[in-house]
From TrEMBL:
The protein's name in its UniProt record: Protoheme IX farnesyltransferase
Pathway membership: Porphyrin-containing compound metabolism; heme O biosynthesis; heme O from protoheme: step 1/1
Protein role: Converts heme B (protoheme IX) to heme O by substitution of the vinyl group on carbon 2 of heme B porphyrin ring with a hydroxyethyl farnesyl side group.
Membrane topology reported for the UniProt record: Multi-pass membrane protein
Organism: Cereibacter changlensis JA139
Organism taxonomic ancestry: Bacteria, Pseudomonadati, Pseudomonadota, Alphaproteobacteria, Rhodobacterales
Amino acid sequence: MTDINAFEQPNEAGFGDYVALLKPRVMSLVVFTAFVGILAAPVSVHPVVALAGILFIALGAGASGALNMWWDADIDAVMRRTMKRPVPSGRVQPGEALGLGLALSGIAVVMLGLATNMLAAGLLAFTIFFYAVVYSMWLKRSTPQNIVIGGAAGAFPPMIGWAVATGSVSIESAFMFALIFMWTPPHFWALALFMKEDYSNAGVPMLTVTHGRKSTRKHVLVYTLLLVPVAIGGAFTGIGGPIYLTTAVFLNAIFLRGAWQIWRRDETQAEADNYAVEKKVFRFSLYYLFLHFGAILAEAALKPYGIGGW
């Protein structure tokens, strides 16, 4: 009689596991913001060049994700949010993740340079290095400011997209960088407030672990207050306009209200409703960034018709 267990291979990697190594949800944000960076630039880009730029930026983002999963496999294994990832679950071997990450890094940087320009390729190479080495290997495990400084890694894609189109860096691309950079801390700290035990168990010095939730709540409010003028101020750059200004004012009013509510709450209130406010603010923060960049995209799309821009 055939043993049916002989056909079960729970630890064998499938195609989906290798896709998961590339962090597709993070990649979607990278692709979208890089796409906006290309289209918002004041020059026309050949569709083939733009498509190649997006493809290789996406590969670079995926490479960063694979390298991060290789390095963080030990802490991913003890966090509920990450323990089912391909490497800690045993479906993908660490060496495979490392090899894939390095290979994709090389392909992405070289091909982006050949397809577009060396500035864009250099920025992509620095982004991969910053995320994989500076953030993952150093900052994440050594300082509660990990997500503040490390947020730069996620802020580079629109700047790279702008460089793909123009071959340069400008005030507009610096604004898009600053928007993501300032958004990252309150976004992640809202998550950390209801995921504190995960970071504590993994030994990651997230602000909630090192300074407590009360201090983290104050930081969420302070960084949101710093974010608001940056976000609204972008309306008065070359990629802004009335559509962006209206969107930014509306979204920042809601986000600031959420940060204020988080700051006013104590742990008794939060535990009583299972961190409902914190979870709501975290979810809204995702829409917040996509809608800001959507407004930039709308300004760029309507500008030829005399509608977008000032």
